Amino acid sequence: MSDFVLLATTGLALGALYFLAASGLSLIYGLMGVLNFAHGAFMMVGAYAGWLTMTDLPPSLSVGVRLLVAAVVAVALGAAVGVVVEVVLIRPLYRHHIQQVLVTVGLSLASVAAAQGIWGADPRPVEKPDWMSGTTSLLGARLPTDRFVYVVAALAVLAGLLALLRLTRLGLIIRAGVENRTMVQALGIDVQRTFTIVFAIGGAAAALAGILYAQYAGSVSPAQGGSLLIFAFIVVVIGGMGSIVGTAVAAVAVGLVQQLANYYAASGVGDLSVVLLLALVLLLRPTSLKGATA
């Protein structure tokens, strides 16, 4: 029983990280039709921004305070990078989807190469607060405390995104744009500004995923964003493009399947099981788990 509780908690935590990585990706594609393969670069920016901020802050500050400041810096920088990428690279190519893919793939490869050139390809260890390194007793199992942090962060982002989509004018425009972007433009609404804001939101969520995944892994490396991006795409496809609720459900399913399969089958089977889950969903429900935006 304790083993199952530990596996389920770890699966939920991993699913929370997948949701943070996939939520912005889902919004960007749902509204703008952009397959942003540079989303992994946003996550890498968040991870390295957090690591550098924690390293540069005075050691007299506690690790927890430095991590909190680093998270704020990473999210702000991720949003800024998202805006720059949308304005400079994506905006001129909205009607050229193949070029979008080529540009975002190129940006992803270039960002990894740049990170390797500056900081090297080897993982760099990151500090973790003592309270996150500890354990919490639940249902007879000793669970790593940091798992709850990832779940709480994902729930906060989910609640924030749902509130944005359902309670604000911007959210109304986003939901309408996902359903029929041409009609929204015909009504004279500034969709271009909305595109930029959505890219900023996606960059911020990806950066948060990057810094939290660095805490989960205990290190930062140039390849982390790319590996996380693979699962983010799987989650988005299973959950439905543009659907935040569907993305959340899919992220939990992917995290749980991956962890349980790795433990009860064999190490490495978890990734295969995730691919099989993707194939099963596409065969049985080609429209994915949820088709609505929110």
From TrEMBL:
Its main location: membrane. It is a multi-pass membrane protein. The chain crosses the membrane at residues 6-27, 34-53, 65-89, 101-121, 148-174, 195-216, 228-256, 263-284. It is found in: Cell membrane. Pfam families: BPD_transp_2. Keywords: Amino-acid transport, Cell membrane, Membrane, Transmembrane, Transmembrane helix, Transport. One of its GO terms (cellular component) is plasma membrane. InterPro entries: ABC_transp_permease (IPR001851), BCAA_transport_permease (IPR052157). CDD domains: TM_PBP1_LivH_like. GO terms for molecular function: transmembrane transporter activity. One of its GO terms (biological process) is amino acid transport. PANTHER family: ABC TRANSPORTER ATP-BINDING PROTEIN, BRANCHED-CHAIN AMINO ACID TRANSPORT SYSTEM PERMEASE PROTEIN LIVH. Belongs to the binding-protein-dependent transport system permease family. LivHM subfamily. This is ABC transporter permease. It comes from Intrasporangium oryzae NRRL B-24470. The lineage of its organism: Bacteria, Bacillati, Actinomycetota, Actinomycetes, Micrococcales.
